[in-house]
Amino acid sequence: MELNELLQTIVDALDDVKGQDIRVYDTHDKTSAFSRAVVCSGTSNRQTRALAASAARAVRKAGGHIYGIEGADSGEWVLLDCGEVTVNCLQPQMRAYYNLEELWGPETVAITARLRAADAAQ
User: Fold this and answer.
1) Does residue 21 come out as left (phi exceeding 0), alpha (psi in the -120 to 50 range) or beta?
2) Contacts of 51 by beta carbon, 8 Å cutoff, 6+ apart
3) Contact (CB, 8 A) for 115 and 54
4) Which of 106, 55, 52, 54 is nearest to 76 (CA)?
5) Which of 50, 59, 67 is nearest to 10 (CA)?
6) Per residue in 6-37, pLDDT tens?
7) How far is the CA of 14 from the CAs of 11, 33, 50, in angstroms?
8) What are the distances in angstroms from CA 80 to CA 22, 28, 54, 64, 76?
9) Where exactly are the structural domains of the chain?
């Protein structure tokens, strides 16, 4: 699966489950482990688990691979390993505490959910 297709699939899946403040970071210059990091917030541990599950389902359906899921037990921070992309679904207090934006940012990659972009065009 091509990187931009993978990112679009993930962002759309997160948006479908009402992920908040979805950001995509280009990390290829900062780590050799993955090329992009996706960060989003969920309002509860149930929602963060649902966000990760939605992204995993969408990636598999599109023909991609999920190499691991961590943190689904507590749901405070669920990490999804999609190979070139990691998906971080965090509750707002965890997101503020770990401040991944400072680690991977400040520049974001412009990926907008297709449904949100279609709504804005109407």
Assistant:
1) left
2) 14, 17, 19, 40, 42, 78, 89
3) no
4) 52
5) 59
6) 999 999 999 999 999 999 998 888 888 888 99
7) 5, 22, 9
8) 15, 18, 11, 13, 13
9) 3-113
Q: Cα(40)–Cα(102) distance, rounded to whole angstroms? A: 14
117 vs 11: CA distance, rounded Å: 12
Residue type present at position 35: S
Mean pLDDT, rounded, of the chain: 89
Angstrom distance (rounded) from CA 10 to CA 16: 10
105: exposed, middle or buried (C-beta count within 10 Å: 0-12, 13-18, 19+)? Answer: middle
Q: Name beta bridge partners: 85.
A: 36
What is the four-CA torsion angle of 117, 27, 36, 118, rounded to 10 degrees? 0
The CATH T-level fold of domain 3-113 is: Beta Polymerase; domain 2 (3.30.460)
